[in-house]
Design brief:
alpha+beta; six-stranded mixed sheet; 4 helices
Length: 138
């Protein structure tokens, strides 16, 4: 097992992930997960595995012109990183935002699990979508 990160290093990983999203660098974001990592938006089925995560997040790039994970508060409690933020984005020319709390668990320097808590209906409306993008792939 890889050496555990300090709390400061975990916070730095959270900021690095936010920067990868701002840069629309889906490969970098996915590579920050363990090979069997999990990305779980809590209202849909979890995405398991680094390559499945890459496919999912790069698929968000369809029409996404920009995104900023605007971090309001971030800290580590019991070894787990909590990130309260507002995701601000422009998709197909439409600006929107959604409040989110992300919870990240680590295995050494990599993310093992990233859970996302947000109002799914609010996000879809902010994105200008009628159909849930995660339901189309099932």
């Amino acid at each position: 097992m890889a050496a555990a990160l300090t709390d400061e290093q975990k916070i730095a990983v959270g900021r690095e992930m936010a920067e990868a999203w701002r840069a629309l660098d889906w490969r970098k974001g996915a590579d920050m997960f363990t090979p069997d990592g999990v990305l779980h938006s809590m209202m849909v089925e979890p995405i398991v595995g680094r390559e499945a995560i890459y496919k999912r997040v790069s698929g968000l790039g369809d029409g996404l012109e920009q995104i900023t994970l605007d971090i309001h508060h971030m800290g580590v409690i019991d070894g787990v990183l909590y990130m309260e933020r507002t995701d601000e984005f422009v998709i197909r020319g439409k600006a929107g935002s959604a409040p989110v709390v992300g919870v990240l668990e680590f295995d050494g320097p990599l993310i093992r699990i990233w859970r996302e808590y947000y109002d799914r209906a609010h996000l879809l409306k902010a994105m200008g979508l009628v159909e849930d993008f995660d339901q189309k792939t099932r």
